């Protein structure tokens, strides 16, 4: 269970986010986060990732406060952020640097297959297209089999067909290999296709409607 209570993030006097309150149970596998540019979506993700300290409120994952980066939380940014001088395989292996070396090769190969790049382990990032590099960034997060996967517009750089494939893969994994996903998207079709729950952050900051549940009429 991810519990976010009265979360506020300010930069100096400027409130970038909140207060926002919501919780995400195991049954709410995917939370889609939508809202206009500048409403604090990326800020929320950085705070959930423990990459940016919160200013007010609390964030707990399975009862434990999130106070910094955690081994069971993985992040996919808009850009892949790969090390340019390291191979694709080495970049993905960084996601599990803390695990026994004997386990890593198979895990990396499985992650490469999940993003449909099984033959690209020895490639360097500059040899990849933008979309392929982004998929390597996704593999680096998936290889951890995180308890919570945080994604900031992860598929925006992909061509439409690859995007649909990656959405399908994500749906195959959530609930099992990856219990909960929080995904920021500006694409309402993507939000509706992937989400069990949608959080609408509506600007300006301070007038946020948290935890809006959207009910779709049954046919
Ligand atoms: P979104 O992802 O919804 O577009 P962000 O979370 O990136 O919004 O930003 C929310 C607001 O906080 C914006 O007005 C942005 O300019 C501001 N902001 C984000 N990061 C910082 C920072 N490090 N310092 C100051 N202001 C920031
Ligand atoms: P982008 O979104 O930057 O165009 P994509 O990942 O969608 O990048 O792929 C662009 C091109 O890269 C594809 O049209 C294809 O030619 C090549 N490519 C992508 N994935 C593979 C793959 N698994 N095997 C071989 N070629 C691929």
TrEMBL record:
Keyword Metal-binding: no
Entries under InterPro entries matching the protein: AAA+_ATPase (IPR003593), ABC_transporter-like_ATP-bd (IPR003439), ABC_transporter-like_CS (IPR017871), ABC_transporter_ATP-bind (IPR050166), P-loop_NTPase (IPR027417)
ATP-binding keyword on record: yes
Keywords: ATP-binding, Nucleotide-binding, Transport
Stated name of the protein: ABC transporter ATP-binding protein
Listed Pfam families: ABC_tran
Lineage: Bacteria, Pseudomonadati, Pseudomonadota, Alphaproteobacteria, Rhodobacterales
SUPFAM superfamilies, alphabetized: P-loop containing nucleoside triphosphate hydrolases
